[in-house]
């Protein structure tokens, strides 16, 4: 009996010590992981609504004009006006209420992870969401992926403030979590969302067991919510292609090297146009908004007779994979989309560049594929394999995140059997881009944004 009482007291003592230790322990990691799950779910919901919203605005724009206007030339004029008004709304909201909501927003998040840029979620979230509906719905050559990443990070900051967390490490972790959840939602690609944070934001991301767990949790919960709303199908359902024969792998290396040159040219031309636009705007709201109306209206009007060269780019990818274009058409569409993509993005519109990059990569890969079939008919390679490899290669050459580009395209298309040619193509693109002195696009955009902010601060203080 005495022995039983002694054992009972010993167990009570151990339980008491455990409860006291639990009470005195730091609950912050648990709270961060709990918030990561909530943030992922909210980002999955908001990102899905943003996707559905942009599709609804775009279809409403087209159906409304076609319903009330029948004459072909009047349709073009009416589409110009409607698209211009939608774009001007987005540009005005950005310039008037939240300048940091312009562009894709990813450089802003990278700056926030370095404590160089503020995250004013109460301004960015409504402006990015509504303004993005306007610019993307107008038919401009922009993607919803970058905006979804910025929305995700700003939602994270909102929860950080609402739950009154104080330590900066938790803030960084949640910002990275929201960004990963945003990319996972935009592409229905959780692994790519995680890798994007680790690879693209590696200088800013503060790696720890808690932070990486939070990023995993956020990406997973965001993807689950997205699939509950939109289904489990891949974003680009373009069918399955055969794996590349071993004796053709060298062709993918050459393709990657060509993409390294294209990527360098794309980045430099985009940055050149951005400097021209900024010089024209002179920080005047009227010029910014009117230019947005001109670009948005032009894209809307062009979409009436040449929809292949405007819009986000998913439709042209599907058409390319269905062999709907000749090599001449592909060359024309690539050149024109190169222009419309760089003009739309460099003008400061609230919109991203991911899906337009994927479309450009698909078109250039298709051109290369036709050329290969002409020169080496004995290989009998499917053109679509070069197009898929091209998606990831241009992403790798411009953003300089090859691993993310590889996994992103494979998750989007469900063509995992092409992983080897994808790796070879992306390596070739990255090496050539680096040898030619190219730098990651988002890093350069962040540097230029910080320089402009510093100059404005100096002018204000004088």
UniProtKB/TrEMBL annotation:
CDD domains (alphabetical): EriC
InterPro entries: Cl-channel_core, ClC
Gene Ontology MF terms in the entry: voltage-gated chloride channel activity
Membrane topology, as annotated: Multi-pass membrane protein
Regions annotated as coiled coil: none
UniProt KW keywords: Chloride, Ion transport, Membrane, Transmembrane, Transmembrane helix, Transport
Transmembrane intervals: 32-52, 73-94, 174-198, 210-229, 249-273, 285-305, 317-339, 351-371, 383-410, 417-436
Subcellular location: Membrane
Tree of life domain: Bacteria
An example Gene Ontology CC term for this record: plasma membrane
NCBIfam families in UniProt: PRK05277.1 (NF003640)
Protein name per its UniProtKB record: H(+)/Cl(-) exchange transporter ClcA
């Amino acid at each position: 009996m005495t022995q039983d009482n002694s054992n009972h007291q010993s167990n009570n003592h151990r339980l008491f010590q455990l409860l006291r230790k639990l009470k005195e322990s730091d609950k912050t990691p648990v709270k961060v992981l709990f918030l990561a799950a909530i943030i992922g779910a909210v980002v999955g919901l908001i990102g899905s609504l943003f996707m559905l919203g942009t599709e609804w605005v775009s279809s409403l724009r087209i159906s409304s004009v076609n319903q009330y206007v029948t004459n072909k030339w009047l349709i073009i004029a009416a589409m110009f006006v409607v698209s211009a008004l939608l774009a001007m709304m987005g540009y005005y909201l950005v310039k008037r209420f939240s300048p940091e909501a312009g562009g894709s927003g990813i450089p802003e998040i990278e700056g926030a992870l370095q404590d160089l840029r503020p995250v004013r979620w109460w301004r960015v979230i409504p402006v990015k969401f509504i303004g993005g509906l306007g610019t993307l719905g107008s038919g401009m050559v922009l993607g919803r992926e970058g905006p979804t990443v910025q929305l995700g990070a700003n939602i994270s900051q909102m929860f950080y403030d609402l739950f009154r967390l104080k330590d900066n490490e938790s803030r960084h972790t949640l910002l990275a979590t929201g960004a990963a959840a945003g990319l996972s939602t935009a592409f229905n690609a959780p692994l790519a969302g995680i890798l994007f944070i680790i690879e693209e934001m590696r200088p800013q991301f503060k790696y720890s067991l808690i932070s990486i767990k939070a990023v995993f949790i956020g990406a997973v919960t965001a993807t689950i919510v997205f699939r509950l709303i939109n289904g489990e199908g891949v974003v680009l359902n373009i069918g399955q292609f055969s794996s590349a024969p071993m004796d053709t792998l060298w062709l993918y290396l050459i393709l990657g090297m060509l993409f390294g040159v294209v990527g360098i040219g794309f980045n430099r031309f985009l940055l050149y146009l951005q400097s021209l636009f900024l010089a024209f705007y002179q920080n005047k709201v009227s010029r910014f908004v009117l230019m947005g109306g001109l670009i948005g209206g032009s894209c809307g009007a062009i979409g009436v007779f040449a929809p292949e060269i405007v819009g986000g780019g998913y439709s042209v990818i599907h058409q390319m994979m269905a062999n709907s274009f000749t090599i001449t058409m592909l060359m024309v569409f690539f050149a024109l989309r190169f222009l419309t993509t760089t003009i739309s993005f460099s003008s400061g519109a609230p919109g991203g560049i991911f899906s337009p990059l994927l479309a450009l990569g698909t078109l250039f890969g298709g051109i290369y594929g036709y050329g290969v079939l002409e020169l080496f008919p004995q290989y009998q390679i499917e053109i679509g394999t070069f197009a898929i490899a091209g998606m990831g290669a241009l992403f790798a050459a411009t953003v300089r995140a090859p691993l993310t580009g590889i996994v992103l395209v494979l998750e989007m298309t469900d063509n995992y059997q092409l992983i080897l040619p994808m790796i070879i193509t992306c390596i070739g693109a990255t090496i050539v881009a680096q040898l030619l002195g190219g730098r990651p696009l988002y890093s350069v955009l962040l540097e230029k944004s910080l320089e402009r902010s510093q100059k404005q601060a100096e002018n204000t203080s004088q």
